[in-house]
Specification:
With 632 residues, this protein is mainly beta. It has six helices and 52 strands. The protein starts with a helix and ends with a strand.
């Protein structure tokens, strides 16, 4: 074919695509009877949802949009998405709350006000008549409603009685004792809901008082909507429900068992439970353990295995479910998770997110809490995230296989930085900075820990009581189920720092009694950290204190760390897939999620490691003595 004809056909194809790809505008000055053009925008995002087709963009301009955005169709491919974006340089907020006015002072009780709201105010869902519940949820013996009350953007603490609102006491066990005295309580009947709140010195009629009124902010009610992008929004204040792995998981932004979403550059905050969910839908089971208390099985383990097989029958496989990208988001003030997902996070990329202040109010608890909490993060990549003040930083539970956790920064997590539960591997943990009191807890096997900075406790133990699945490599095809014996881990080139005289609590002694073989070599132990007796080669400087400090300045952060001559001048080996071998149980190679060979040639920042001077820890090049390293 003539080259000119080919060029003409290409030009016509591009032109046709550009004609078909439209842009709809949404503005607080708009009207849903408009055509959605920039000069005649819509008023609501959902009006644009109704019209948006694959390849279209919905641009939302400055303002607060109090609606549940419910996509009704998705894109056709990665190149032909439906994109929802905040207008560049503008602040577009999607809120799950409504403004509450008309507060009346309660006589003789300082700081306490009340308001009675008709139930019609909430539409078809009243969060003050609905309570949090679900598998592995602990209510601590009281009701917790899905709703929340906010004073100038800050959530108040729900109480179980009027008296605790009238006469609040500070909770000294949490991060914000004073904040815990700003309280609320509610009662509802068939006609109305009454809320009492202690605003202390504030007159609520002169302030912004909001109450959660919707289950979510961005969530399609149907499946099969792939290739959707959500970019640049401020999303907050939804009345989200507990996201058990055996339940439909609905955060403020939720993918609903779809594929190929991009959630990027958003600020997501103040969810009653979860910020983003990449998880399971309802049809394969919803809190099946709680709903089946009469069953002979009294362990959620069996119920989750049954859910897993239903999910597989429902199409859980690569190219159909998962493969999401969650990047460059700021996520905070969520009481269950920043990001969670049961099986739907498989094959996904989670990168460059700042996640903090998760599970800080601590009025309820449960086994599904963390900055990131995934079940079955098959071939997922979790990298370059900053996670702190989150209770538990990352929790990878069941079926962590082909997963790579790389170059993340953890600090001030008072439970632990990362927890692996009943996984068989292989999974790779490399170039991370674990700076909390407990760095790693692993009730798993088949992990490779390479070039990490570990300044907290490292704990491992078996689980002979639960049979959990493992897969054929890079798939969701189940190869078998077995218990966790413990061991089968590899630990190379890590920088492990103790805390002075607490020498029995830091280091790798935890592997001394591992059931399965372990491979431990070329780690550096400082400041009384204790090596495992199974270590082949090591750098041991028990009296050297690297004086590690992290200076969090908000927009910038600096790590101060000193290096001895022995560490700075070490000459270790590059670690690759050949050296790591196969995880014993799944018989799968330690390699990248795309099946290519793994190689530890890049450091925390992505800089190449000099081949002739590879040192322990996450940084390629350091100087002897004190180093001040900018981390963000």
């Amino acid at each position: 074919m003539n080259s000119k004809i080919i060029g003409l056909l290409v030009s016509l194809t591009i032109a046709a695509f550009n004609i078909s790809a439209g842009e709809y505008h949404v503005s607080k000055s708009g009207n849903d009877s408009n055509d959605g053009s920039k000069s005649r925008p819509f008023l609501t995002i959902n009006r644009a949802v109704y019209l948006a087709m694959p390849g279209d963009t919905v641009t939302v301009h400055t303002g607060v949009y109090r609606e549940w955005v419910k996509p009704i169709r998705g894109g056709e491919s990665d190149a032909k998405r439906i994109v929802f974006r905040a207008a560049p340089g503008e602040k577009a907020e999607i809120k799950g709350s409504e403004v509450v006015k008309g507060w009346k002072k309660v006589d003789k009780i300082p700081g306490v006000w009340m308001v009675t709201i008709p139930n019609s105010f909430f539409g078809d869902y009243n969060p003050y008549k609905d309570s949090i519940y679900g598998d592995w949820f602990n209510d601590h013996g009281r009701i917790h409603h899905t709703g929340e009350v906010f004073l100038n953007g800050k959530s108040l603490y729900e109480k179980e009685s009027q008296q605790k609102v009238f006469f609040p006491s500070a909770d000294s066990s949490i991060a914000d004792p004073k904040g815990s005295t700003y309280t609320w309580y509610c009662e509802s009947n068939d006609q109305s809901t009454t809320i009492w709140a202690n605003f202390h010195e504030f007159n609520p009629n002169n302030e912004l008082i909001e109450a959660s009124a919707r289950k979510t902010c961005f969530y399609p009610e149907i499946q099969g909507l792939n290739f959707i992008t959500i970019s640049g929004f401020y999303i907050s204040q939804a009345a989200t429900q507990w996201g058990a792995p055996t339940a439909e998981q609905v955060g403020m932004v939720a993918t609903h068992w779809n594929m190929g979403w991009i959630i990027e550059n958003n600020v997501i905050s103040d969810s009653k439970c979860s910020g983003i969910t990449l998880g399971k839908e309802r049809g394969t089971g919803h809190n099946v353990w709680s709903a089946d208390q009469g069953n002979i099985y009294n362990d959620g383990n069996i119920h989750y295995i049954e859910v897993l097989f239903r999910v597989l029958r429902n199409g859980w496989r690569k190219g159909n479910i998962g493969s999401h990208i969650v990047r460059n988001n700021t996520i905070f003030n969520c009481e269950q998770t920043g990001i969670c997902g049961s099986m739907g996070a498989a094959f996904s990329l989670i990168e460059n997110n700042h996640i903090y202040n998760i599970y800080t109010k601590r009025q309820f608890s449960g086994a599904e809490i963390g900055g990131i909490k995934f079940h079955a993060a098959v071939d997922a990549i979790i990298r370059h995230n900053r996670i702190h003040n989150a209770g538990r930083g990352i929790w990878l539970d069941w079926m962590t296989q082909g997963t790579r956790v790389s170059s993340n920064l953890f600090y001030n997590n008072d439970m632990e930085d990362i927890f692996f539960e009943v996984d068989h591997g292989p999974f790779i943990v490399d170039n991370n900075l674990f700076l909390s009191e407990v760095s790693v807890r692993s009730q798993s096997e088949g992990g490779a820990y390479i070039h990490n900075l570990i300044t907290g406790k490292f704990q491992t133990w078996p689980d002979p009581g639960r049979f959990t699945p493992y897969f054929l490599p890079h798939s969701t095809d189940i190869a078998g189920l077995t218990i966790v014996l413990g061991g089968d881990d590899r630990l190379y080139n890590n920088l492990i720092v103790g805390r002075g005289n607490k020498q029995n609590e830091y280091g790798l002694k935890t592997y001394d009694n591992a059931k399965l073989p372990v491979w431990i070599e070329d780690n550096a132990y400082l400041n009384c950290a204790v090596p495992s007796r199974k270590e082949l080669n090591m750098i041991y400087e028990g009296t050297f204190d690297p004086c590690i400090q992290l200076d969090d300045k908000g927009n910038e952060g600096y790590l101060t760390i000193s290096f001895s001559s022995a560490v700075k001048n070490a000459s270790l080996n590059i670690i690759d897939s050949e050296k790591l071998g196969q995880a014993k149980i799944p018989r799968a190679v330690f390699e990248n999620s795309d099946g290519t060979s793994y190689k530890s040639n890049l450091d925390y920042f992505g800089n190449p490691r000099p081949a002739d001077q590879i040192i322990p820890g996450p940084f390629a090049v350091v100087k002897e003595g004190e180093n001040i390293i900018k981390l963000w």
